[in-house]
Amino acid sequence: MTRHTRLFMSMAYWGFAIYLFLPITIMIAMSFKDSKFIGFPIRSWTTDWYGQAIANGEFVSATGYSLLVAVVSTAISMVMGTWLAVLLARKSFWGRGVVFALTMLPAVVPGIISAISFRIYIRLIELDPGMVAIIFGHAVHNVPFVALVVGARLGTMPRSHTEAAQDLGADPLIAFLRVTVPYLKPAMVGGAVFSLLLSFDDFVRSFFLGSYEPTLPVLLFSKLRSGMSPEINAISTLVLIVTAILGLWAERSMRRMNKG
């Protein structure tokens, strides 16, 4: 690689980094501004907006609601995604390509199309909009990502591990629980955290499938319609910090499990 090429690649990298992180930096800075007006210059700084955000019962309720939806939908998607990953990785059967395509379909369908189709479907099965409908929509959307992450890990597992367990007397279920699941644990943790963040951040499906109680993204959207404020920036910054901590924890946990 020539010197000019390295210089160009370096400039491209830092340009992308600035493009990615500058808006986030501005958002965080505005959450400390001692004024309701969003814009520069910032003449004085305050943390009052964070106090208001934490004391805002509507924000706390929406956050708890979003977390509950995310946890339940993640649990469902983990069970379904892991089962599909094992099915597709270990079995050779007629129609395997069709099953794989149908499994991946929710990940490639545009969000607005997916949300509209889910809305129509819940009306057909006479399911009222609300928590159950949102959990159903999020779980279906997250299954492909779990299946991909777990399937990639499963593809690196030697078949001799489970075969040795079965030779020692373990039935397929016991071999799966005691040999396969521990091997898949790093991928399952990563898939669970990814699904949790996807569900917590999902706006379109939550908006179309929700009722009067909003998730956090829907609540932020409704507040933005009446104008931007530093309190919204403070709420967004708190969510960003929590998700970053969760992502770092998941990454470190996966590294420790892979080493073990």
Provide an overview of this structure.
There is one protein chain. With 260 residues, the chain is mainly alpha-helical. It has a single domain, classed as Orthogonal Bundle (MetI-like fold), CATH 1.10.3720. Helix content is 79%, strand content 0%. It has eleven helices and no strands. α8 (172-201) runs antiparallel to α11. The longest helix has 34 residues, at 57-90. It is globular, with a radius of gyration of 23 Å. The two termini are 37 Å apart. The model has no long low-confidence stretch (mean pLDDT 85).
The arrangement of helices and strands along the chain is HHHHHHHHHHH
CATH superfamily: MetI-like
Average pLDDT figure:
85
Shape: globular
Percent range for helical residues?
over 70%
Number of domains: 1
Q: What's the CATH class, please?
A: Mainly Alpha
End-to-end separation = 37 Å
CATH topology: MetI-like fold
Number of helices: 11
Structural class: mainly alpha
What ranges have pLDDT less than 50 throughout 5 or more consecutive residues? Answer: none
Q: How many E strands?
A: 0
Task: Give the biggest sheet.
Answer: none
Strand content bin: under 5%
Radius of gyration: 23 Å
Looking at the overall shape, the CATH architecture is Orthogonal Bundle
Blueprint of the fold:
Elements: H1 3-30, H2 48-55, H3 57-90, H4 96-108, H5 111-124, H6 131-154, H7 159-167, H8 172-201, H9 204-209, H10 216-224, H11 230-259
Helix pairs in contact: 2-11, 3-6, 3-8, 4-6, 6-8, 7-8, 8-11
Throw out a few tags for this protein:
single chain; mainly alpha; 11 helices; 0% strand
